[in-house]
Amino acid sequence: MKDFFKYTFASLIGSLLGIALIVGLGFGGLIFIVGSIASKAKDIGPQVKDKSVLVFDLATNITDTRPISNTGEALQEALSGDQPATITLRKAINALDAAAQDEKIIGLYIKGSSTPGRTGLANLQEIRQALQRFGETGKKIIAYDVNWTEREYYLGSVADEVVINPMGVIEFNGLSSQTMFLSGAFDKFGIGVQVTRVGKYKSAVEPFIRQEISPENRQQTLQLLRDIWGEYLQTIAPGRGLTIQQLQAIANEQGILMADAAVDSKLVDRVDYYDEVLSELKALTGKEEDDKTFTQISLNNYTRVPEVVEVASGDVNSKNKIAVVYAEGEIVNGAGTPRQIGGDRLAKELRRLRLDDKVKAVVLRVNSPGGSASAAVSTDNT
After folding, report:
1. SS in 3 state form for the chain?
2. Quick check: 140 and 107 in contact, CB under 8 A?
């Protein structure tokens, strides 16, 4: 009986070790294959065909820094032929500027989306400037969407032809701001809120202590909205051949325009279905009418074209460098997370750059709602 249990136990241990070895080798092999595929794709990169149109999907999110991907997203990205729906502002601008000078790129198609991206207004402004530089080379820009929102139209209005679907509408009714006040609900549940603040314009805590907006907060919010809306009108007016006053009248009197009304108001150039736009893009790229699509490359993929990457990288061995530091997210004490601005981590990075003889200047890009005052102060003495 002892021999039976001894041999049975030994057999069980051997089987478990064998299974563990197979699983380990299998997982290691998978990682090796994925790594090889990703490395090969990175080395070769996408190729641009002659007479290609660069496609800028307005569903793309453009951020200062690239978001952190989890393991599943990273694996999907490695196996996919396309990049994720989020790219950095610097990559996007470099790609648009490179495409403007690329002889193989003959035009740009701004593709509207039912789920437009959440790109911030400051980044939209820089992207629009890059689109304008592209258009100044004489290459054609076509923009199409079923329904144009104000955010999408800000970019689409730079196009030589702005097209809207016959059943679509364009939103052009100005900007607004809404706040949900919780003080009344807190009172019902007996919840008290104690706040220490300096100045009447410190309004971040108002939803917790008031039931309506304060006069000071209303004043500063209206001023902010007017400034943004004024810049919006000033930017798009020249390209549409309209004055700021004419655009403001459209916002005041119409707001939401059906397709034909949008043409009459000169906000768009024509009304067509996507099939007609597709035929135009086919003709632009030399394709036949019976071809399924036109010669194209997405902005996401174009950022990975080897020639574009090489130009964007610059001279990595230069002894005279300008460092660009991105501070994005809420300001917090300590190191923080990758989606936060950790005071200690930012101070350490700035100190390292200050002591680097090859770094001659630093550009600090801040995109933050604010946060810890002590964390912000910790970077002052770096």
Report:
1. CHHHHHHHHHHHHHHHHHHHHHHHHHHHHHHHHHHHHHHHHHHHCCCCCCCEEEEEECCCEEECCCCCCCHHHHHHHHHCCCCCCEEEHHHHHHHHHHHHHCCCEEEEEEECCCCCCCCCHHHHHHHHHHHHHHHCCCCEEEEEECCECHHHHHHHCCCCEEEECCCCEEEECCCCCCCCCCHHHHHHCCCCCCCCCCCCCCCCCHHHHCCCCCHHHHHHHHHHHHHHHHHHHHHHHHHHCCCHHHHHHHHHHCEEEEHHHHHHCCCCCEECCHHHHHHHHHHHCCCCCCCCCCCEEEHHHHCCCHHHHHHHHCCCCCCCEEEEEEEECEEECCCCCCCEEEHHHHHHHHHHHHCCCCEEEEEEEEECCCECHHHHHCCCCC
2. yes
Between 59 and 24, residue with greater pLDDT: 59
Instruction: Considering only CA atoms, give the Rg of the chain.
Output: 27
| Sheet containing strand 161-164, strands side by side | 270-271, 161-164, 140-145, 105-111, 52-57, 296-298
Answer yes or no: is pLDDT of 83 > 70: no
pLDDT > 70? residue 252: yes
Phi, psi at residue 91, to the nearest 5°?
-65, -40
Look at residue 144 in the predicted model and tell me its pLDDT. Answer: 98
For residues 19-45, b (16+ Cβ closer than 10 Å) or e, as one string? eeeeeeeeeeeeeeeeeeeeeeeeeeb
Dist. CA 211–CA 372, nearest whole Å: 26
CA distance 300 to 81: 10
Question: Cα(138)–Cα(160) distance, rounded to whole angstroms?
Answer: 10
71-79 vs 2-44: helix axis angle to the nearest 10? 60
